[in-house]
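Subject: mismatched residue count in predicted assembly?

I count 506 residues in my input, but I want to confirm that the predicted structure covers every chain. Input:
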Amino acid sequence: MVAQNIFFGIIAAVVVVSALRMVTTRNIVHAALYLVAVLAGLGALYILLTAEFIATTQVLVYIGAVMVLFLFGIMLTKAPLGNVMKMTGPQWPIAAAVSVLLAGVTVYSLIDHFGSDRLANDGPVFRTAHVSDEVFSTYIVPFEAVSVLLLAALIGAIVLARKD
Amino acid sequence: MTTLLALPYWQETAIKLGVALAVIPTTSLILVYLFLFKMMAFMQSRLGPNDTGPYGSLQLIAEAIKFLQKEDIHPAQADRRVFRMAPVVVLASTFLLYVVLPAGPDAVVQNLDTGVFYAMAVSSLSVLGILMAGWASANKYALLGGLRAAGQLIAYELPLILAVMGVVVQAETLNLQGIVHAQATGEIFGFGAIGNPFILTQFLAFLIFMIAAQAELTQTPFDMPVAETELVGGFHVEYTGFRFLLFFMAEFGTAFAFSALAAVMFLGGWWIPGFDVDDNILNILGPGVMLAKILLVAFFIFWVRFTYPRLREDQLQKFAWKILIPLALANIVLTGIFKVVF
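Triage response: the counts match. Full output below for your records.
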């Protein structure tokens, strides 16, 4: 378990530093690239938790699709090189307060719920087949609900984007 | 692991990493020499390189040395850090692909449970590097090239993944070794001597996969991203020397990896008819079989590359969204129906 703990420390440090740099950097493309580092670090943490399928999904969906679309959109519209003067809006104190509050609530509820429980050294290995069996049997209703929600979002986006 | 090789985990990992690091430049070397230099030359009634080494086979090593000697140039306005990182991201995507490619029952760096899914995920990382390269070059032609490349790679990633789904449904696993097993133990109407290579039952998926792979590799009918003869290069127009070499190596390394994926998923992988699937001898014979199948698939990729003229940008996008994706979806539905009925 020592190796896992060391790597957890390294990855967590990378994620935290990248997250801070993401909101403090003055360049919008750099901000997007720091967000890639954050998401990749989270994927690595999933692998440490033996959740291989979720880690792969994280890479495919968040880095391969969402972040590429972000960058694509930024570069298609306006992506100046060098530092931009002002990247933060006037509401930044409120945003900071909300994120601190959110972090506090999450940390408190996690500690409150799990306390000092520890994962077993030989924790379960989540096989892809298990994940799909669960999704298509136990969690079929939430899964279908999410599909319908995504379809609605897709149609909404097309309606908004159409000129006529 | 079998009893043949029982090493501690770190030694095993070190050996595998060493082999993978040696294999990737070698594969680019083989593909470039065999197809880009020699086959293209013969198809165009030229001789190709013939001075350096026997039959010009050392030409590429001479070229690599030349690239390494060149000055490392940045454009004055470039974003240096992103500019330097971009080729590394593209090459990392190629390296990660080789982790799951199997060449024998145990001859694989890591037999991941999510096999194919993982391969698709890491191959999509190269788009990130291409966008970074285009943006950081501080050159509007490079930026436009990067956007062109990203638009094409995003469009053709969907049919690629959807085509693979047909194979996954038939093999009932995402694991590449599992897919090889499913083909080796399969039967064609009760005849099991050659197993059941999925190219027979998934021929439509194979065609879609090859077309989409051609586009993902930006080979010629789909080489809009790097139309260097008409447009000003592409995303790597500002790159020279070693950094250009990294892009070049990634391109052909990925071509080899995609050929290997096609060989594993559609042509039966490392299995040889007549052998038991878990036979230890396949660890030694398997890589040879894989190499032969990979070169066969790569031959088709490059044959198409040297034969057809380029598509127009709008034709290219229409082809992906209006033809390939609906066909791939139909293939999944049909495969599902057959899977349930039989």
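Chain B has one domain: 11-341. Marking this ticket as 'not a bug'.
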